[in-house]
Amino acid sequence: MAEHVILFAGPMGAGKTTAIRSLSEIEVVSTEAANSERHVVDKATTTVALDYGEITLGDDDKVRLYGVPGQKRFDFMWAILKKRARGMIMLVNDDAPDAVQTMIEYLDDFRDLYERGGVIVGVSRTDLGVGPGLAAYSAALQAQRPDLIVPVFTVDPRDAGQMRTVLMTLIANIEMRAMLAPAAEAVAP
Amino acid sequence: MTATWAQGAPTESRYSGVGFEPAAEAAGVAVSGWARVAVAVHAVGPTPAPVVMRLDVASYAPILIDFRERAFEAKLPIGQYPSAPDSVLVHQATMAEGDAAVFPLPGADLDKLLWRVGFTCFGDAPAPWLIPGERYKLNRWPNFVELTHHMDHIRMAAALANAHYSADELAAAAGTDRSSAQRLINAFTLMRVVEASAVAAVPVTVPARADAPRSLFRRLREKLGM
């Protein structure tokens, strides 16, 4: 059976577990515990190992959806998962403090995926109008890597239709980039 | 000019003090309806620009565009405006620094309006501002979550995110028809989410079609019914 691993990353409270629930066709397996950092994000529980959901494609393929813990002290889990990952959906709250810088710091931890075009950014809570807005995220990404055009979409992780658009855009970008890689190498000096 | 309205005032009074004038017609381009809007919007140039525009669609409330904010305001969802209105008149005004907005901000993302207008108003023909021989590459992904879209649009955008294409090349790379590719390029150039190049190389190899049988995109699309 072939597997296609998609990661969901981002700071605590960004909606990773909710996003996986919106996409998964199985009951999502979550490993949550009491949130010991309520001064950071006011929610009762948080993911301490990972969330898992899946989409089955016929008899032989599965898209495996892994949510990695938002707290950086669990980053040893990221190292295990990112080796298997084909792409990553990075979620950030627009109204969180230093949201743009937080996104950049997370992407640094997933640099391999980022540099091979395997990242999409979903920004939630933009409707509140208190955060920097989509253009600020795109500008920060382009300042880092002008040659990489990373999709940055608004998203409500509770909305299955929106999450499907995000997932399909990620897959389209990964596949198109892979198909063009031989052409890019052929024209390189 | 200085706008004279206050926050909370009815929208009409907010722009009543703005000196709108008919937008100039592009020389040699005879257009009407939404195409007239597209040509006028394209002539404004890159945003933000100190320009506001009022679109008078026959039998409908005006649509207001503020290019300083990349935003617009319409009384109805943009999909409820007629695809072929009896007439559309375009008026615009140049704003001075510090002039207030002509509708309550943040308004709606201008891309929503330009996507709908640009994709349909020239049919299958190239937009009049396009130059034969040019290829196009994305410089910013449009926010498809907010746009009425089809999976072919996402696949074409993914192609444009990774290489320069003409309409014919884009159709071949994304496995879609030329009409859709041309319409998408019309819309994307109006939204200014692509850059044009007269010297970008032809792709050295023809990429495999994204809807090839083993494509994860294709299988997920079928699975999710998109």
Automatic annotation (TrEMBL), chain A:
It comes from the Bacteria. GO terms for molecular function: ATP binding; GTP binding; hydrolase activity. SUPFAM superfamilies: P-loop containing nucleoside triphosphate hydrolases (SSF52540). InterPro entries: Gliding_Motility_GTPase, Gpn, P-loop_NTPase. Keywords: ATP-binding, GTP-binding, Hydrolase, Nucleotide-binding. Belongs to the GPN-loop GTPase family. This is ATP-binding protein. It comes from Schumannella soli.
From TrEMBL, chain B:
It comes from the Bacteria. This is Uncharacterized protein. It comes from Schumannella soli.
